[in-house]
Amino acid sequence: MYGVRAARTTSDFYVASRTVTPWWNASAIGGEYLSAASFLGVAGLVLAYGTDMLWFPVGYTAGYLMLLVLVAAPLRRSGAYTLPDFAEARLESSAARRMASILVVTIGWLYLLPQFQAAGLTLRTVTGAPQWAGPVVVAVVVLVSVLGGGMRSITFVQAFQYWLKLTALLVPALFLLLVWVGDGRPELATPGSPVFEEPTSVEVTIDVTVDVPSQISVVADGEPLVLEPGPHEVSAGTVLDFPAGAPIPHASSLTPMTGESWALPLTAGGDHPLYATYSLIIALFFGTMGLPHVLVRFYTNPDGRAARRTTLAVLGLLGVFYVLPGLYGALGRLYTPELLLTGRTDAVVLVLPARLVDGVAGEALSMLVTAGAFAAFLSTSSGLTVSVAGVLSQDLLHGRVRNPVTGFRLGAFLALLVPIGLALTSPFLGIADVVGLAFAVAASSFCPLLLLGIWWRRLTWPGAVAGLLAGGGASTAAVVVTILGGPQSGWVGALLAQPAAWTMPLAFVVMIAVSLGTQQHLAPGVNRTMVRLHTPENLDLNRGDWDPEDRWRT
Prior knowledge:
By secondary structure, this protein is mostly helical. It is about 65% helix and about 5% strand. A hairpin with a 2-residue loop joins β3 and β4 (about 225). α7 packs antiparallel against α15 (about 360-395) and α8 crosses α16. The longest helix has about 50 residues, at about 135-180. The radius of gyration is 24 Å and the shape is globular. Belongs to the sodium:solute symporter (SSF) (TC 2.A.21) family. It comes from Jiangella ureilytica. It is found in: Cell membrane.
């Protein structure tokens, strides 16, 4: 109810009237940014693929360093509500605004998809509910939160959720480390393929195809069975009993690292691990500045200085948090290796506390990590919904709905429809993998637009639109093929699975080349806009002691 009373104007709904303090805003950004990929996906990737996956938390954090240095303060000074607002203000073009709006919605939907899939995974793991229940529950809660008070309302909620997520991982991690030390600190990467250390019973909850590395004698639903090497179809509800020392089959959707390669860098990433690693680094480092739900947060700061202080605080908060998911993934390699069989490695954070800690304490720790997981879904989904709803209400519903607040609420409803449909109908993919693809699209579209728009005076609207079409279109096509068609082999598969290394340079080249050939379309007010982006707020531009036209003439 507080959010409803406080959010009475358009500015309240979109940017909380630009009154959020740096520390509060940094906590809210942490709560919003630490999505299902951070809370669950990173641990699942480390469990399956090893140390190469630590680039995900490194990249997620380093992206804010790029924001701090290149974008944060000028973007705050732009005075825009959304990324399309910035594109229109800088380039003075409605075509650039429309193109930016399409990409904001695309990235928002792509980022919302793994949030809803993770919600289904969590609710099914904890309660046994059907897969569709999680997306529906999270969507309803997000819609109620966003409709209640817009950005002002969810800011307070997201700030609290950061500290809840940190606590939800930190407290159980302390107990898990104590158990690991008590076991004699066993090695994480043992030679050869992983095996069951003791007799283990695994219930398969979904239909899955598993690859058996070598002949295994098991008991399937009470009947002895010998599994020959190769792929085998296992129906949902099947219970498999493995003897101690049996090699662990893995789902065909995974190609996990085995033996010492799990602990070595540049071993994951398919046929071309070096390219995949560098492309992932590019996507994560530069994709952060193109995420619409992150950038809108800088519009809520009072001024550019506060925006920089906010970004610095975010770096500290993220650095503390990202120590923990890798720890869960590494311990999961020892204590929950059966997740490789079911393919649900993203659930390692949810099942590990109860596996290692007995009794009421284990149940309490499981409840804590479950609460943290839902906080991750809700906070990120809320921020994304606000960003997408803002674009839909201003560009799609503008002129069709008289009251802008009503338009925002209708936009929030529309923003959730597509990702819910995708989450309920598309195959389950690795949570962090899908988020990485969203980063690739952001790095290939809004990163070039922001960097050139802020730091290069000669950018024109035809150049910007052409670059967004080239980079954003190519990366989006690669993402769609990867999601619908599954991983490919060879160089084609590497280029599609990790497109940022070629789509981001493509966007820069096209923007620069087309802009140089269309200087007649340079925005008439570009000099004044550039001065506004780069002049500190405490400098009075109306004193008349210098000429902004001279400042940017060259």
